[in-house]
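Students often ask why we bother encoding 3D structure as a string. The short answer is that it lets us treat folding as translation between two languages. Here is a chain of 342 residues written in the first language.
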Amino acid sequence: MKPRSKALTFWSLFLLFSALIVCVMYVSLTNGTFDISAKDVIRTLLRIHPAADHDLVIFEFRLPRILLGALVGFGLGIAGAVLQGITRNSLADPGILGIHAAVGAFVVVFMFFSAGSMKAPGWFPVMSMPLFGFIGGLISIVLLYIFARNQGEFHPQQLILVGIALASGFGAVTLYVSLKMDPDNFEMAAVWLAGSVYNANWRQVLSTLPWLVILTPVIWRRAAVLDLLQLHEVSVKGVGVAAGRERQILLLCCVGLVSACVSVSGSIGFVGLIAPHIARRLIGNTYRYIVPLCGLIGMLMVVTADFIGKTVFAPAQLPAGIVISIIGVPYFIFLLFRTRTR
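And here it is in the second language, the structure alphabet:
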């Protein structure tokens, strides 16, 4: 595909996914246990004779939840694209490689030791959770580097096996710590671990936003480096790219995105696996286009899954992570078999 034609295709897809996201957001904002007409939503957002009940439903319950789901999907989609690009492994994903589990374990440890402050109205717990998750993510990356590298390179099968082992280990730590919690905090941790944004608030939105605003441009500016990293290691060094340094920067950015997302939504898996595959099928292997497209696809996945979870099973609510897993697990098995047959 010619560069001009690819750019035109990208912008067409960008507008298409943006329109789909807006449509799902609109449907999610107007539908639920308490339906609100489009006219009332517009009047409430524009502050034209707003009603108190509409203000409560839109600004306190639905809008933070929708925006947080969009931010989480955006971050996880981009993180998945980066991991697959760094490892040259189409099965790489923050959840499969154990990063989700590591971040989740450290966040649960934080919940355990700061149980009293978790329910406090201040900013400390909301802003501190991503930092604790970031530490956990860094530890998982270090362990991946130690156990999954063979002669300086990541072996695809070994990477998956080590990731599964790390996820199991950190999952055991999470389970042990959560069982030591009192019943109220255990219930909060259990709902969070399922991968849900139903308890979203504006503080969580504002705590997640800086990580995405700062780290996404850093990743996008290294899109050309991600393209070069798809070559053999000797070829990468031959064109003058400091592969080790660039991988470390991209990995740190990836861990930061995952930490920010998991700390407010729990472990929503398979977004980082499915979004890059869809993007590559639609636009090819140019990371300049893959990165933003993965963000939009991730947004659409999480917002749609959250809407399905809160409406299809009403009055019960199914976490978005479980809804995505229903699709993600069969898709992962399909990719695994396709990889083995090649």
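Translate back mentally: The longest strand covers residues 149-150. Keep this in mind for the problem set.
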